[in-house]
């Protein structure tokens, strides 16, 4: 048995020396020192030895086990170092190579237009207000002179969540909330930008989700001429000092009288072209004097206070100002489209 143990040691040491990777080394360890390994099988036969031989063979067996174990541990360290060195070589970085350029983004075109409009009205003394996109039927309709049976509700096909809760169809509820907040005690100027939602078929000029900016000025002795002056400043600042405006009679339940505002076509300078459909004018926004019912429901005395309101779509303004012909481009996140306006 002593000769068998020495033969196992020589074989094991030779195989350990030849091992080329950690997986192979582990297999060698199992084949010699495992539960079914060569050394273990030999030691199971020690019961057949005489009492005098057992201590001698046991000592030799321990020496063989220790020699094989030490050889495996030493080889394991060598192979681990070699694997680490190989990994470091394969993952090495040449710090002298030029870096990859990082693409720099920019504000979305709609964001740019909205911020430009905000800056313009802030400069005229308006505050910027926000409100919930999930709105109550009361603030979205009733507080704006649109009771439940009002036929004008059909003008805005809505996304209802419950009978009294819906996705807002315009940002006008923020105006109603602001008036109620002030409780009819003082005048104010405000604009309210934000997303709105209507059941509409998406195409080049329509979207079920879009943005809107509405403005409201309430105070004593506010006149239609004040509204026209503000809209004239807006048109010239957004589309150029040579733009002209005109106001056409219209209808909105929350304003009386109501108007649509057109600007002279920038493409043909009012002479008539395909953009303005030969009229020389392009519709921009709706506006009007705040309806007395709206003032009264918000706590304002319509005999003392008056006001004007206006509403515009930033998408439409951006399309006209920058020559975009499809509203869907604003929402597709196509970087080829968006990067055109980073410096606009």
TrEMBL record:
Its EC number is 6.1.1.20. InterPro entries: aa-tRNA-synth_II, aa-tRNA-synth_II/BPL/LPL, Phe-tRNA-synth_IIc_asu, Phe-tRNA_ligase_II_N, Phe_tRNA_ligase_alpha1_bac, Phenylalanyl-tRNA_Synthase, tRNA-bd_arm. CDD domains: PheRS_alpha_core. It is an enzyme of class 6 (ligase). GO terms for molecular function: ATP binding; catalytic activity, acting on a protein; magnesium ion binding; phenylalanine-tRNA ligase activity; transferase activity; tRNA binding. Binds 2 magnesium ions per tetramer. Mg(2+) binds at residue 256. GO terms for cellular component: cytoplasm. GO terms for biological process: phenylalanyl-tRNA aminoacylation. SUPFAM superfamilies: Class II aaRS and biotin synthetases, tRNA-binding arm. Keywords: Aminoacyl-tRNA synthetase, ATP-binding, Cytoplasm, Ligase, Magnesium, Metal-binding, Nucleotide-binding, Protein biosynthesis. Its cofactor is Mg(2+). It catalyses: tRNA(Phe) + L-phenylalanine + ATP = L-phenylalanyl-tRNA(Phe) + AMP + diphosphate + H(+). PANTHER family: PHENYLALANINE--TRNA LIGASE, MITOCHONDRIAL (PTHR11538:SF41), PHENYLALANYL-TRNA SYNTHETASE (PTHR11538). Tetramer of two alpha and two beta subunits. This is Phenylalanine--tRNA ligase alpha subunit. It comes from Ornithinibacillus hominis. The gene is pheS.
